[in-house]
């Protein structure tokens, strides 16, 4: 019995030694390090909110919404260009580490919780409340007059995507239904953008197209890259009202789409302003335009 008590006492000492060590490990810097997130157009959530707050701390103009929209992408590009990084608009590890200082200093960035979300699911822009522990490396912004030269990497990426072969199908939209398609599309002007949205409560770009066509008893694929595979690829000057137009805003694949209205206009669900009209020769959209698909019979 005495020997058993000694064994039990020895075991208790071992356990009491292990528990604090495990506890310390999880509280140590090693236990709290986070991998740099990869953020790009259409990303949502807390990491995007942190990104937007850090850009504000660096004196860049951006709304804190928790949604990585075109405006946030444009601001990220400006930050990257100002810091001699390829201005892809994608927050990779180098961009994140430069914003937070984590890699070089070991000091994690600390910011307030994500912007509140309304009961309807829309993000509410709010002025960020940052704590004293936020660390943002000093960044020298270039003056607007100085300008920044776009690296060829972005143009090369778009050119490469434009040059890819794409599947084609016979045209399928009866010309008599074009007017109804466009009328249905315009009916939802101003509908907010919601990532993954496919109802009038909120649309993403491809969900909007699929919904409009479904209302006219025509079924098309759900995602922009799959929608790009239907119809026949044609030059811009051969597009007709009712055809589809596609863009690569993330510089990797087809990531945005719309319905061509004619005279250089298209209607789409934009991440910044919801369903709206824009022009193909708009300074922003012309840079990311990949091509049009002719679907009208």
TrEMBL record:
Keywords: Hydrolase, Protease, Thiol protease
Keyword Protease (UniProt): yes
InterPro entries, A to Z: NLP_P60_dom, Papain-like_cys_pep_sf, Peptidase_C40, Peptidoglycan-bd-like, PGBD-like_sf, PGBDSf
NlpC/P60 domain boundaries: 175-296
UniProt-recorded Gene Ontology molecular function terms: hydrolase activity
Family indicated by similarity: Belongs to the peptidase C40 family.
Protein name (Swiss-Prot/TrEMBL): Cell wall-associated NlpC family hydrolase
Species assigned in the record: Pectinatus haikarae
